[in-house]
Amino acid sequence: MAIEFIDIVETSLAGLGTGSLMALTGVAFVIIYKATKVINLAIGEMLMIGAFVFYGFSASLALPIWASVPLTLAVSAVIGGVIERTMIRPLLKDNPVSVFMVTIGLTSVLIGVVELIWSAEPRRLPEFLPSQPVIIADAFIPSKTAYSFLIAAAAMAVLITVFSFWRGGIALRATATDRAAASSVGIDVPGVFSFSWMLAATVAALAGILVGSVGGISSAMGLFGLSVFVVVIVGGLDSILGALIAGLFIGWLEAMVGRFLGGEFKLLATFSILLVVLVVRPYGLFGTHEIERL
Amino acid sequence: MRVGTAKESYAADEGLFKTDTQKVWFGLLMAGLLLFPLNGSNYWMFLAVLVMINVISTTGLNILTGYTGQVSLGHAAFMAVGAYTVAFFDGRFDTPVLLNLVLAGAVAAGIGYLVGLPSLRIKGLYLAIATLAASVILGFVFLNWTPVTGGLRGLNVPTATIAGIELATPDRLYWLVMPICVVMVLAAKNLFRTRVGRAFIAIRDRDISAEIIGISLFKYKLMSFAISSFYAGVAGGLWAYLFRVVTPESFPALASIFFLAAVIVGGAGTIVGGIFGAVFMTLIPEFLKLSATALVPWFPDASIYLAPVRNIIFGLLIIGFLIFEPMGLAEMWRRTRRYFALWPFRT
Amino acid sequence: MSPLHPAAPVRPPAARLDVENLSLQFGGVKALDGIDLNVAPGSITALIGPNGAGKTSAFNSISGFYKPKTGTVRLDGEDITAVPARDRAKLGLARTFQNIALFRGMTVLDNIKLGRHAHLTAGVFDAFLYWGKAKREEMELRAEVERDVIDFLELDHIRNVPVAILPYGLQKKVELARALAMRPRILMLDEPVAGMNREETEDMARAILDVREEWGVTVLLVEHDMGMVMDISDHVCVLNFGRRIAAGTPEEVRNNPDVIKAYLGSSGDPRRAAEGHAPVGEVA
Questions:
Q1: In terms of domains, do C203 and C248 share one?
Q2: Contacts of A291 in chain C (CB under 8 A)
Q3: Does B207 touch chain C (CB under 8 A)?
Q4: What is this model's ipTM?
Q5: For residue C8, what is the DSSP state?
Q6: Is C85 within a domain?
């Protein structure tokens, strides 16, 4: 089988489109990890609930897009805050494994809630991105992929700017480095925890809206989270830059493998990469390597 | 501390059961297991067999996660390995049942050993993700290694036959599953009376100092993975004989969460906790089914909500127990016993 | 309590420990810079020095947790520098930790039994059956631990208590007990009395002296409590900024001008200096 060059280019571009969404979700994961050191296994399900909330506003209530998106983000922030306050904070002093398992429980709860309200059937989100396909050189890119890439890129640019320069972003990084020290210089540490979960839920919801508008929504769309774990582990759990680069890479890889080997090889490829990274460089490409002490 | 339990020898103090009360409870349990089939209901016999299969599997996960502290998100995949092994050998070569079950355990243990290898470099949460990766890869193998696994359609499993007796129904299968379950649970209990079990717990509590007092992390982490997978493999093999068909859908990722939930809800790091957890978690869906049926006169489509409500309850149980009763049902049981042992005094 | 096996306690002979030219580096920081240390068999040797002097680094290198950059560690003349930490346990090197490193989920008895791990041999199949070898071994272990360790350190009233709920001083003692259960030839104690009150300190000092007396074991300890160091050690080695600045009997060391300078910056009595040692920034 001759593989045409244009095919490779188009597949790559589509892959980078998906990859940008993985990167965005990965950033949501990293925000939580940086601030609270919690590995949130439910990130895919938080993305899913965001997509369904958006469905509720834009399809069920038929609100216009300019109202549905902010409403969805706001509701998601509240959900994130509630999760942090009721499930995560009571356990933060315990060992990290307990909190991790709580997020596993959360996965199950969120899937149940979505199926209870909207049933397990796949649905389509209302069309809101321009439908004109984008053509770069000779390569054809579906419009949704192209626009979701742009939106994701813009969102990440905003987030990175905020984290680098805004006071709250610095507070978050300070908390990440040393809780006790942050607290002693007057940073409201519990506030930072709540804020990080709210922000992450918002970012995940945005990613959910985009993922859903490209591929439709269903109670199983949290599986997207599986690829996101691979992204954050490859990139390094606490590195936003790592999530970005690894996101694009994994998205590209899945697209190429899916196109040229077959869809069933996608997860196999990503998880094989994951195993290799775990064994060779467990703290990821850009993550902080913590020296073990007695 | 319990009173009135003075011993006259170390052997008595190191015994499997430390008090007469425990011996009585164990005796009652055994009698209950022997007499249970008298109820004659096929449904209850099916449920009993399923519960015991889950007890075996949960005990396996408890050894790895509860006692050794290595979280596994791929336990169901090892059960699947066991189920496929039984289906393959019994279907293809008509090998004896007990041999198939040992093979199921052994193959699963071998794969568990391999999956455990990353645990030497990575810990805790990273390891959990690695086990998830392993289960994804195993799922791929089940789906695509068609000559052995039957691909998407899976494999049919012949009736278990021992000494010419066909164990086609749950009430007969019970007499295969029950003794295996009892033996494996007692073996696990024994394990933690010896240096091997203590080494597991040491690794859970403080792996660095475990190494410095002479425990090889390499050896014991892998051993724990292998033992845990062996239990899962045997449980999966029995599962295959109960359901008589194995497909890639038989053990979804959610099933791994089911066993993790059973360990947490029951009480991680206690054998009795694994039993409680498995019984409780297996009976919840049944209880929900009964309630849904009862609700039909008022809510005709109550049964559609069964699956989502079950997911929510599983999740909430995990979260709730971790927050409010991290030691699980075993701890509640211990407190209840203590209350009655000292009655009417309160502590 | 009547021992089931009234055999004579197994007490391996005390070992000597020789450390030569030990260096250790973390990134650009030299934690240890060519340390020499000789511990005579059956002695109590103390390793002292201000915070950040490298005492704990030296300890961790000797017990095999850190890989030193240069230097050798010899146990009874045998070079063990390349032996992994877990195998040093079997050679008779037992230690306690600065921040108690007990297995919190287990009882005192199980923690102590763990000390014997490397000397037991039951495999996983014996363990499942708890029959024959596994059972015999566990019974002997229990009897020995009861007789040699629990009675000796007077821990019998708490043997079935989970260590997590014990007060600090007792936890330290349980850690000592676990180290003793390892049948040590060299016992390394990292700040055995840190954070203890006067009474607990005296109790621990007595226990250490008893251990040396009864078990004939070599003791190497790191400690900030100068009162205790001066009282019980035969030999003191002083580190500062990763180098050895003095060694000798407690009396010699106390009057050594370099030592006085290290502790006070100018002159004074290290006995008083120990109360308010300035935080220089712990290296390890």
A1: yes
A2: 26
A3: no
A4: 0.87
A5: P
A6: yes
